[in-house]
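Why does residue order matter? Because the sequence determines the fold. Keep that principle in mind as you read this record.
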Amino acid sequence: MFLIIHEGILLLILLFYLMFTPMKASFDFTFDEQTTFSLIAYKIPVFIFLLDIFLGFHTGYYELGRVVLSRKSIAKCYLKKKFWVDSFCTLMMCLNTFVIYSSYLNLFNLVLRINQVKKLLDLHNFFY
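Structure:
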């Protein structure tokens, strides 16, 4: 149940970024760093994406119709399939949030995350 809620929150964050990032890059919105919106829109998602990387190493997967729960197999599969994109996007988001802001970095991050949005939408359609 926790994983379904986490995936739903992740989907909402990614859909927010899909709509907000192009507008922010186009119209050059600025926000005060101390506002609640800044906290919700920029800082909390970084920690949720870090949690997603952690959960990626602890979530079983299906292989040939069987559930694989071996930690070593899960880590190998996650490292092969999703880890590099997840970690690269999360690193870019951390840099963009805490070090230096660049709208181009945000757009590049968004392009890399579009595939994840598609998979999350497919997962949402499967459960509901």
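Residues 2-127 form one domain.
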